[in-house]
């Protein structure tokens, strides 16, 4: 009888499984060996890494090894922060014309200091003067006849002026952080300019200035443009970038009106926006600056432009004489110049507004600070047909009510008391004819002079901006009001009542 194979022999997977069971111990042993090798490798690697991080030191003492862990390495000290910007590190480029030089150089002499650096760029040469040592160096701008200019209302001198920063850069002066552009009819407060620019990193691209007071001017040109008459600042690296491309840029904009809109066009191509600082003043206005200066923004006063277009800032004197008087408080406490404080004489129901170094105004009645910080419209719009809506900021009307007209006291003198560490400024009433007020309340006309006491604070702008407080002090001096101005106390509030 033929032998039948076992049933199991008919299943091929059975043989395969037997082969797997036979090789399984070998596979297991190989896996264990591989895992062991990997563990040893990673242990050694981790140990080396740890030793590196912990800075393990092995030393031999008395025939045995001792391991000590050194403290982590001391990081290299960070470079000290850059020192504050000095006046010497700011270079001015002043736009001027030979035709107006003999007149306008008198403005520059008022604010220019011996340690400053800069160039007055003229369209042609002028005769040397005996006062040249009191002024910046004079140079003649480069030829711009190759550039196209087709604006029907402007003048092609705008091209020359727009290149002032680049031409000043190419002089190769050392240790320059900022280039500042301005006109020959601009009055600068140099120490306040330093305070403003010190807030910014001069190693970065910065284009700093402000817009016009005229809404229509800003509409016609740009709210994002720094107006050159009011002055603007360009950091050194940005000036280098501008100089490399400016001539090509100028050729692309033959239809623009002035120099500052050409600068702005090039800044737009460089991708650098305007950093606004409210202390740069274009003053595109006519008339009396009293309303603007007595309600100055809470920011350092940097510049005043259009000196030939507005009235002297102090009455009964010419423009140069008025600015000379302004230099007196500038030399004593430039940080506080034109800073407004508001307080109340509650016993007489008066509102008092002080613009330090300039004016004191006394108003019958109680007015809110919100109202007093709006400039009164003592000035006219740049566009004769524009009304108050043509200004680029809030204003308030000059009152017609005889009882609500402010009594204005202009600065007559100021001194510094070293013992008390305070300035003492005297303000004298500006005599104007006023009809009698019928209100049954105290009459400010009996106050002939106002004394203001203030401790100088050179670090005023290193802190967050805040309006100073003022306090009306009791006095036995006849016809005199005495006021203290200074940092507000912990819980001091300028309250209406």
UniProtKB/TrEMBL annotation:
Segments passing through the bilayer: 27-46
Domain of life: Eukaryota
Sample GO molecular function, one term: acetylglucosaminyltransferase activity
Keywords: Membrane, Transmembrane, Transmembrane helix
InterPro entries cross-referenced by the UniProt entry: DUF604 (IPR006740)
Entry keyword Membrane: yes
Keyword Protein biosynthesis: no
A Pfam family per the record: DUF604
Family annotation (PANTHER family): FRINGE-RELATED
Protein name, per record: Transferring glycosyl group transferase
Underlying gene: LOC107923692
């Amino acid at each position: 009888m033929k032998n039948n194979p076992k049933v199991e022999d008919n299943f091929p997977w059975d043989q395969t499984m037997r082969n797997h069971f036979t090789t399984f111990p070998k596979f297991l042993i190989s896996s264990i060996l591989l895992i062991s090798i990997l563990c040893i490798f990673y242990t050694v690697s981790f140990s080396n890494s740890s030793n590196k991080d912990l800075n393990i030191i092995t030393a031999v003492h008395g025939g045995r090894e001792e391991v000590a862990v050194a403290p982590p390495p001391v990081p290299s000290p960070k470079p000290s922060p850059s020192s504050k910007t000095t006046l010497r590190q700011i270079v001015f480029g002043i736009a001027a014309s030979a035709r107006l030089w003999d007149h306008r150089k008198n403005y520059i002499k008022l604010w220019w200091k011996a340690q400053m650096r800069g160039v007055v760029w003229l369209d042609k040469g002028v005769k040397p003067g005996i006062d040249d040592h009191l002024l910046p160096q004079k140079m003649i701008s480069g030829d711009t006849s190759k550039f196209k200019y087709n604006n029907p209302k402007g003048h092609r001198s705008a091209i020359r002026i727009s290149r002032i920063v680049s031409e000043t850069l190419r002089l190769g002066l050392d240790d320059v952080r900022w280039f500042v552009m301005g006109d020959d009819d601009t009055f600068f407060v140099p120490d306040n300019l330093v305070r403003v620019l010190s807030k910014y990193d001069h190693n970065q691209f910065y284009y700093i200035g402000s817009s016009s007071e005229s809404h229509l001017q800003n509409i016609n040109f740009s709210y994002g443009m720094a107006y050159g008459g009011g002055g603007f600042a360009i950091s050194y690296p940005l000036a280098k970038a501008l100089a490399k491309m400016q001539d090509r840029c100028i050729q692309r904009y033959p239809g623009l009106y002035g120099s500052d809109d050409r600068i702005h066009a090039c800044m737009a191509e460089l991708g650098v926006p305007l950093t606004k600082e409210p202390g740069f003043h274009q003053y595109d206005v006519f008339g009396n600056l009293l309303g603007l200066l007595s309600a100055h923004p809470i920011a350092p006063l940097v510049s005043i432009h259009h000196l030939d277009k507005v009235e002297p800032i102090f009455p009964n004197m010419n423009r140069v004489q008025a600015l000379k008087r302004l230099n007196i408080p500038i030399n004593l406490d430039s940080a506080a110049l034109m800073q407004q404080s508001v307080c109340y004489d509650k016993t007489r129901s008066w509102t008092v507004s002080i613009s330090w170094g300039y004016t004191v105004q006394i108003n019958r009645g109680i007015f809110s600070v919100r109202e007093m910080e709006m400039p009164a419209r003592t000035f006219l719009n740049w566009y004769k047909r524009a009304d108050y809506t043509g200004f680029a900021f809030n204003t308030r009307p000059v009152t017609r009510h005889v009882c609500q007209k402010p009594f204005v006291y202009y600065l007559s003198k100021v001194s510094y008391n070293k013992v008390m560490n305070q300035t003492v400024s005297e303000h004298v009433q500006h005599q104007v004819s006023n009809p009698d007020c019928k209100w049954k309340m105290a009459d400010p006309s009996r106050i002939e002079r106002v004394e203001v006491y203030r401790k100088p604070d050179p670090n005023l702008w290193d802190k967050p901006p805040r309006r100073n407080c003022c306090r009306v002090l009791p006095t036995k001096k006849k016809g005199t009001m005495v006021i203290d101005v200074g940092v507000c106390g912990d819980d001091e509030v300028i309250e209406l009542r």
